[in-house]
Amino acid sequence: MARVLVGVKRVIDYAVKIRVKPDKSGVVTEGVKHSMNPFDEIAVEEAVKMKEKKLATEVVAVSCGPSQAQETLRTALAMGADRAIHVEVPAGDYETLQPIHISKILAKIAQDEKVDIVILGKQAIDDDSNQTAQMTAGVLDWPQATFASKVEKKDSELHVTREIDGGLENIKVKLPAVLSADLRLNEPRYATLPNIMKAKKKPLKKVTPKDLGVDISPRIQVISVEDPPVRQAGSIVPDVDTLVSKLKEKGHC
Amino acid sequence: MYAIRLVNKINLKPTEAVRLRLVDVAPRCISTTIPCGANKGDKLNKPAPKSQSFVMNMFRGQVQASQVFPYPKVLNEEQVDTLQMLVDPTTKFFEEVNNPLKNDQLEKVEEASLAGLWELGAFGLQVPQDLGGLGLNNTQYARLVEIVGANDLGVGITLGAHQSIGFKGILLFGTPEQKAKYLPRVSAEKQFAAFCLTEPSSGSDAGSIKSRAVLSPDGKHYILNGSKIWISNGGLAEIMTVFAQTPVKDEKTGEVKDKVTAFIVERSFGGVTNGPPEKKMGIKCSNTTEVYYEDVKIPIENVLGGVGNGFKVAMNILNNGRFGMAAAMSGTMRSVTRKAVDFATNRLQFGNKIDSYGAIQEKIARMSTLQYVTESIAYMISGNMDSGSQDYHLEAAISKVFASECAWYVTDEAIQIMGGMGFMRDTGLERVMRDLRIFRIFEGTNDILRLFVALTGIQFAGAHLKELQRAFKNPTANLGLLLGEIRKRAIASVGLDSGPDMTQYVHPELKGCAESASKCVADFGRAIESALIKYNRKIVEEQFVLNRIANSSIDLYTMVVVLSRCTQSLNNKSSTANHEKLMTELWCNEASARIEKNLKALTSSVELGNFTKMSAISKNVCQNGALVQQNPLGF
After folding, report:
1. Which residues of A touch B125 (CB under 8 A)?
2. Residue A79 in contact with partner chain B when CB distance is under 8 A
3. Which of A130, A180, B15, B357 has the fewest CB atoms within 10 Å, i.e. the most exposed one?
4. Full-prediction pTM beyond 0.90?
5. What is the rounded end-to-end Cα distance, in angstroms, of chain A?
6. ACAD9/ACADV-like C-terminal domain: from which residue to which, for each copy (chain B) (predicted)?
7. CA distance A119 to chain B (A)
8. How big is the A-B interface in CB pairs under 8 Å?
9. Which residues of chain A make contact with B97, given a CB cutoff of 8 A?
10. ipTM of this complex > 0.85?
11. Average pLDDT of chain B?
12. Apex CA B111: angle with CA B338 and CA B133, to 5°?
C-alpha cells in the first residue's frame, strides 16, 4: 500500500480571457476567477481512485502560494484527498516562483511524509512550464513516468501508458516514483456539496519554504509579458492573377 | 368575508372633519393569507398590532426602517467562505453536465443529470448537516438557487417542489421525531418529496379543498381519500406533504367542523397512485401529475403542525419559499441579459454595432435595472429571514410578483434584441420564455398576491386608525398620540407633508431619491386612509382600486430596497457603486412617477369612470360568451 502526494496549483480559470497588466510585468490576476489547474484535477482524481481501489492508504495534497492556495487545497480535499499541506509563499515571492523551487519543495515534503508516489499535472495552464514533475524526480533521484494516460499498479511496480508522438509507450517504473498526468488519464469527478462541507473538517497543515529548507530566491527575471500579436486583417484581391502575383511576392509559390 | 363597521365620526379640527370608518377584518381564505392573531376577537380594547415590516407600516404612511436599512449582511466569514466553495462546483455542474434543451425535449430531467443533482447535494440544501443535508441558511440557499435559475428553470422546479415546498413543512413544523425520520430520507437517501395542496375545484381558494381524512375507529390512523392535481414531482415523490379536511371539534361550542390538517404521507402507505405526466407549456422536464389517495392509512404521528392547523402550515410553507423564486429569477435575468448583450455588442447593422442605438440601449438599461431591483429584494428578504424576522410575508409576496414579471419582461426584451436569432430554439431563450410563464401563476397567482398585499396592508392600517379612534374616548390620557395626529393632518392639509425622513439612512448622494421615497410614503398612507374612508366595507370588493394600491406598494418597497443596497455599495466604495447609483436613480424616478399616477387614479373621476367602463365591457363580453363586436365587414 502506498502513500500518494499530489501537487495542486491555483491558476486563472481556463474560461477567463487573460489580460496583460499595463506595465507588462505579468497578467491581471486580481478579481479574476481562479480554479484548480485542470491537469492537477486529473492527478487528484487518479490518486483518489488509487485509494478507492485500496492501492493507496492516504492521499496528501500540497499547494504552494499565498493564502488563496487553500481554496484549491479545499477542492482537492472535497474530491477525496485526506489531508492538505499549504506551503505559504507570500504574493510577492510567488511571482518569481519557478518549477525548480516547487520541485525542491515537493521533494522535501515527499521525503518528510514518506510518500511512495508523487502525482502531478503534466503542466499548469498558466505558465505551461511542463518541468515540475521531471525536476522533482531528478531532485529525489526517483524514476519518472510522465504524460501518463493509464496507470496500473502491479506489486511494487507501476505499469504506465504514455502518449507519445504517433502512438503509445508502455513503461514500468519501480516505486517510489513520480508521475505526471496527461489529459486522457481519467475524467476528474465533481466536488459534491456535501463533500465540500466535509472537507472543511479535514486537516490542513501550513509550512513555509524556510521550514523545508528550500531557498526560493529568484533564478530568473521576467523582463516583459506581451499580448500575442494581433492578427492582420486580410485583403480581397480582384482576380486569380493578382492572387498568384501577391503570393509570389511573399515567396509562397 | 370581511365585516367592516362604521365605528365613529371624529372631528379632528373644526375645519377638517375626518370621518374614520374602521376596518374590522376577518380574513377570508385567500390562498396566501396568513391567519394572524391580530384578527381574532377584535376587541375594541386590544392594542393595534405591531409589525417590523416596512411594507405593512408603509400603509400607515410610516417608515419602519429596521428591516430595510442597513442592507442586511447576515453571513459571517465562515459562511461566506463555505458559500464561495459551493458556487463553483454548482455552476460547473449546470454548465457542463446538465443540458436544459435536452431536458426540455425529453420532458424529463436526463437520468445522469438527475443522479448528478442528488450526488451534488442539490436536493438537501437546507436540511441540517447531521440529518444528511448541507444546513444552508436562506441567504446561502438563495445564492445557489440563483445559479439554478440562470441555467434550467425546469430543474429548478424539480428541486424547488422537493425542498422549497415538498418537505419544507417538516423543516418548519416537524416534531424532532418527524425530522429525524424523514429529513435523512429526502436528502441522503434520495427520496423525492412533493407538496400536495391544489385540487380540481380548489386553486387560489385553498381553504376549499375536498380531500378528507377521518380518524380510524381505533384512533391510530387517519384514513385519507381525495385527489390532487398539478402536483410537481407527483409521479416521483415518495414523501408528500398532503392537505386534507379533518373533522375538528370546537372546544367551546362542541360543534364539529371540517378544518384543514397537514399530513406527511409516504407512497409506501398504500393507496397512493398518480396520473401520467402532464403536457405543459414550459418547465417541461419537471414532473407534474395528478395524485390520488384511496383509503390511505396515515399513522396519527404523521400529522404535521397539529390537527386543524393545515391552512396555517400551507401558507407558512409558501410564504417561506417565495424569496427563492426572486433569487432564481435574478439568475435567469442575469443569464438572458448576458446572451442579449453578447449579441448586441457584436451585431452590425446600418454600419454600427446595435448597442450604439438608443432603442437597444433603453432595453439593456431596463433589463439591467430590473435585475438589480429583483436581486436586491431577494437578498434583503433572505437576510431578514436569516436574522429571525417573522414579519416578511408582504415583502415575500411582492418579491414573487415582481420577480416573475421582471423575468418575463427581461427575457422578452432579450429575444427582441436578438430578433430572429432570439426566436430560434438553439439560442435557448424561447425555452426560458416558456418556462417563465408559470411563475406568474403558481404558488399564489400574481393577481391574488396583489390583493393579499393590498388587503393585509389596509387591514393593518385600519387597526391603527381604530386605535386612534379609541384614544378619542379618553383624550386626556392619550394627548400625545392625538396631538401628533392632529399635527400630521394639519401639515398634510396645507400640502407641506414631505413624509417621514429617510435621508438619515441613505448615502448623501442619494438624498434626492430618499426624499422622493419619503414623499411617496406619506402620499401612500394618506391614499390608504382616504380609500378606507371612502369605500368603507366595500374596499375588499374594489379590485380595480386594490390593484393600483398593490402596484404602488410594490413600486414603493422596491425604491427603498434599492436605496438601501446602493447606499451599502456607495459606503463600501464598491467598484460598481456608480453604476448602481445610475440604476437606483432611474428606478426611483420612474417608480415615484408611477406611484403618483396610480394614487391619483384612486380619486380621479376619469380613472374611476374607466374602472366602471372596464367592468361594463367585461360584463358585456362575458354575457355574450365571446367578443361582442362584429368584424367590420359585418360577417
Report:
1. 193
2. no
3. B15
4. no
5. 62
6. 508-626
7. 23
8. 39
9. 190
10. no
11. 90
12. 80
